[in-house]
Amino acid sequence: MIETAGLTKEYPGVTALDRLDVTVGEGVTGLVGANGAGKSTLIKILLGLVPATGGTARVLGHDVATDGGRIRSLVGYMPEHDCLPADVSASDLVVHLGQMSGLPYAAARERASDVLRHVGLAEERYRPIGGYSTGMKQRAKLAQALVHDPRLVLLDEPTNGLDPSSRDDMLSLVRRIGTEFGIAVLVTSHLLGELERISDHVVVLDGGRLLQSSATTDFLHATGSLLVEVQGRHDADQVLGQALVDAGLAARPAGDALIEVDIRDERTADVVRDLAVDLGLGLVRLQERHHRIEDVFREGGAGSVQPT
Ligand SMILES: Nc1ncnc2c1ncn2[C@@H]1O[C@H](COP(=O)(O)OP(=O)(O)O)[C@@H](O)[C@H]1O
Ligand SMILES: [Mg+2]
């Protein structure tokens, strides 16, 4: 779907993207990074809206430097910031944008009605957007990204500004676009926790550089750990900790009777359990901890998380 090679964007005094090599395939891909990491810059370059200053990128086989118009006809885009006209209804806006994408009026009306229903905008779609809640505006932005039946959508922070329940609805909707509608999705967020729920693949950007790109399950294994609490003897945590290290796992003390073990694969928890049994120790707690994005950044490069 997307392939970049050495993609670089320099703004005066800022390198927004730094020699980025990334590949995005079918399904839902989460693009994660703190504010300023370069997510929106990457999306605008992929759409041919902003020129790169180095490297290359192809979207659906088309070169972003020369085929921006073609790419935008095949790709849907949900921009990050509020960009909707206040005095137009969502229905009129989506019909209009459908026509601009080349659909005849009747087809644009039909498609607009379908996509507005899919995103859950009901009767309010005939009212001016100026009176919408943030959640409704985000839905209208999503609907216009889908109206021309794209093969790929680029969704820039679709959960921005939403309360927790609207956030969950939006995430489920994004997931459904990828699964039920079969449209490839690249979705950004500064929250890893949101994207790991709905993405097949996660790409992490930090300061314009690729920190990691991997299947979501591998990502969780690479960044997750287990918190283990043992009892049975006064030095139970040391005994089990040593046994885990001997078994080739990365384990370290994590406080009173607690050990933290890096998750190596889906069998890691079984190894901990079996060793505790062998040593005659009681497991009080075996709890999975997923690192937050901040932890990934802190460990990036030096620790267990390496760009792949
Ligand atoms: N038009 C611009 N002019 C100058 N600097 C910019 C411009 N757009 C983005 N930047 C800078 O590029 C970096 C990446 O920004 P952005 O792509 O918006 O990050 P993100 O979407 O991950 O928050 C930031 O340091 C930002 O300040
Ligand atoms: Mg952004």
UniProtKB/TrEMBL annotation:
Gene Ontology molecular-function annotations: ATP binding; ATP hydrolysis activity
- The answer to whether UniProt assigns keyword S-adenosyl-L-methionine to this entry is no
Domain ABC transporter, first and last residues per copy = 2-232
- For whether the record's keyword set contains Cytoplasm, the answer is no
Q: Residue span of the signal peptide, if any?
A: none
Q: Which UniProt keywords apply?
A: ATP-binding, Nucleotide-binding, Transport
InterPro entries listed in its UniProt record: AAA+_ATPase, ABC_transporter-like_ATP-bd, P-loop_NTPase
Membrane spanning segments where? Answer: none
Q: A Pfam family in this protein?
A: ABC_tran
Protein family membership: Belongs to the ABC transporter superfamily.
What's the protein here called?
ABC-2 type transport system ATP-binding protein
Organism name: Nocardioides soli
Q: What is the lineage of its organism?
A: Bacteria, Bacillati, Actinomycetota, Actinomycetes, Propionibacteriales
